[in-house]
Amino acid sequence: MIDGVRVTVTYGRPSMRGRTIFGTLVPFDRVWCPGADEATILDSDKPIQLDTLKVPAGPHTIWMLPTANQWTLIVSKEPSGFHTQYHPDLDLGRVTLRKSPINPPVEQLTLEIAPNRSGPGGSLSMRWETTSVWTSLTIGR
User: Is the full-model pTM beyond 0.85?
Assistant: First the structure.
């Protein structure tokens, strides 16, 4: 719950299993669905805002464009789909993510929606291998 609104993310959780993930298994400079099998879905009861991107209530698939230096979150108008079938013509919008290294590595892909500890709003984050990316999440008015 973020400010009294239900916001969920539904995704498959692949594991590292000794593999190098970013730049190898997940190539840089190519759109990637953060998850396995079905496309990852972001859903909310009310409109939300991810950084500056306004997202209507309801389900949306989310995708990422990782590069060596910068990551971009892509929100699609599609409410569901398969994780290898990205349709750029259905993009709702894109947000540049904040990025930082993490240690120790995270074995399983982890997406999280978390409220701010003080004040309104929260964040949407992803952690896997040695990378953490995130953006702010606020409830629309």
Answer: yes
Whether 117 is covered by a domain: the verdict is yes
Assess contact for 140 and 46: CB atoms under 8 A: yes
Task: List Cα–Cα distances, 87 to 62, 72, 77, in angstroms.
Answer: 11, 16, 10
Among residues 111, 45, 32, which one has the least CA distance to residue 74?
Answer: 32
Model pLDDT for residues 46-85, shown as the tens digit of each residue: 999 999 999 999 999 999 999 999 999 999 999 999 888 9
pLDDT digits (tens, 9 = 90+) for 25-42: 999 999 999 998 899 999
Number of domains in the chain: 1
